[in-house]
């Protein structure tokens, strides 16, 4: 049961622990044990909620990134895109307050705007990659700079803040929840479960893996390569929009420092989770584990005072590499 | 004939600018970091405002403004200004001290006027004029405020900025100021002058420590994140927060007598304006402007908040 859940094409390896499958989970469990050992508050309801809720932004984006990377692509623009969407969303909501009044109407329009702008941004990335045939790395490096500049320009170098009244109504979307589970966690879980189903059970998921594995073969097998690729970038754009919907109520503001390096965190989470950077194989549940590993490292370092805070980045780097080494060790890379 | 014309020109110049040297054309290059966080945004705003005002006031001055998003880009900007715009003076807020020292020294060696703002170069005596905020005073004033608010001692947490000399100077002065006061620092972590990072660091401080009497957020952007984390934990009545720099939203709260934001400490981004104005004076008047100009850090409380409130600034 351990093996067929992830790599159906690889012959079974008997009862040995397959590190490729269980590596990230083992790393996660080890981190949780370490955290609980170092600080009794680590497993408290408050801390667990904090960690899961702050993972949600990167997590939702990383689920989309899993599809992009599985099909052999890459998107470096997601962090800037999130900042840009947050800025546009805040400006439109503030602009609507005089005519629509303060209420859920304005917020719903804002949410729609976030999804539409995300979709449009993903469409631009996707079209440039599939129709103009430019490398994904270059296209998204370019749009990364464009979105980052646009938010700086929109905010006039400062910070865009959401109208106070709207903010008060919108706040529960981050801080509230259902049966004690915060909304960002619920949305993250829903996105992850849907993503896992799409990746494993639908033609779209299989086509992503086929294209990433060998584009020519996929083309001859009647897969609409360009259409599937375009869809992955649009899907990612929409998910960035959803992440932004959860992000804006947290601090009610957007500035040029919003979402900096989110793209690298999302890509790192995807790779830690066992998806292959070259494409051809992806798993959404692994990405979720990867995101949790990344947030837990920061949380444990804050709670424990283990090392000088100057070294936090180094510890993070070492754990990321270890988590990947653990799963690649027993297995020759395809 | 020629002499009278010259005299006429001189008289005109005196009439316009009240100075004998006013007719010399001069180009002043201004090189600053891009608006990557709140304080830098305010600094960009004030640089543009000052240049606009000076351009209208003095016809003979021309300005070249460039904003860089990393040190190597700033070096290229300065080289371009020298090569293509033939600047007479450079006003520079170095992104980092080390990489900018050499290029700025070459500008000086070419016989140009150099004004360095806020972040000193790693070699002394390059610049003609140095305009800066006082990071030591920033830490000291903050520390003294803590001592005054917690006369019997207390437990506090500290959020630090991006690891730099600026941050070190502030924190050292702060620690020195609270020495022997019975104030215990429970923890210090880097919030990188960033709202989101500060929010997460503060959440973790709140999980870790059952009693926190006050927070030195040391920056107003970080204070925003800290306040939100405190609200989320519902512990607003237990502690207060001191930020720094003078963001308009925070000054507004001080002005309104908000209990959780009792004060703020200035570190004005408008110091870039001071530097450009002083440099301009070098070309339009005979007043001496070389030397060091250190802008103090002041404590903003409810009583004086109004004079620090600039509602139009983005910061």
Topology (SSEs and partners):
The complex is a heterodimer of chains A (334) and B (315).
Chain A: H1 19-38, H2 45-70, H3 78-100, H4 104-130, H5 136-154, E1 159-161, H6 164-170, H7 172-175, E2 177-178, E3 181-182, H8 183-201, H9 203-213, H10 215-220, H11 225-251, E4 253-255, H12 262-272, H13 284-304, H14 312-328
Antiparallel strand pairs in A: 1-4, 2-3
Helix pairs in contact in A: 1-13, 1-14, 2-8, 2-9, 2-11, 2-12, 2-13, 3-4, 3-5, 3-11, 4-5, 4-11, 8-9, 9-11, 12-13, 13-14
Chain B: H1 2-17, E1 26-33, H2 38-57, E2 61-68, H3 71-85, E3 89-92, H4 97-109, E4 113-117, E5 129-133, H5 135-149, E6 154-160, H6 165-178, E7 183-190, H7 195-208, E8 214-216, H8 220-233, E9 240-242, H9 248-255, E10 264-265, H10 271-284, E11 291-295, E12 299-300
Parallel strand pairs in B: 1-2, 1-3, 3-4, 4-5, 5-11, 6-7, 6-8, 8-9
Antiparallel strand pairs in B: 10-12
Helix pairs in contact in B: 2-10, 3-4, 5-6, 7-8
Describe the structure.
Chain B: InterPro entries: Peripla_BP_I, SBP_2_dom. Chain B: Belongs to the bacterial solute-binding protein 2 family. The complex is a heterodimer of chains A (334) and B (315). Chain A contains 14 helices and four strands. Chain A is mainly α. In chain A, a hairpin with a 2-residue loop joins strand 2 and strand 3. Chain A is globular and about 60 Å long. The N terminus and C terminus of chain A are likely disordered. Chain B has 315 residues and is of the alpha/beta class. Helix content of chain B is 45%, strand content 19%. At the A-B interface, helix 2 and helix 13 of A face helix 2, strand 7, helix 7 and helix 8 of B.
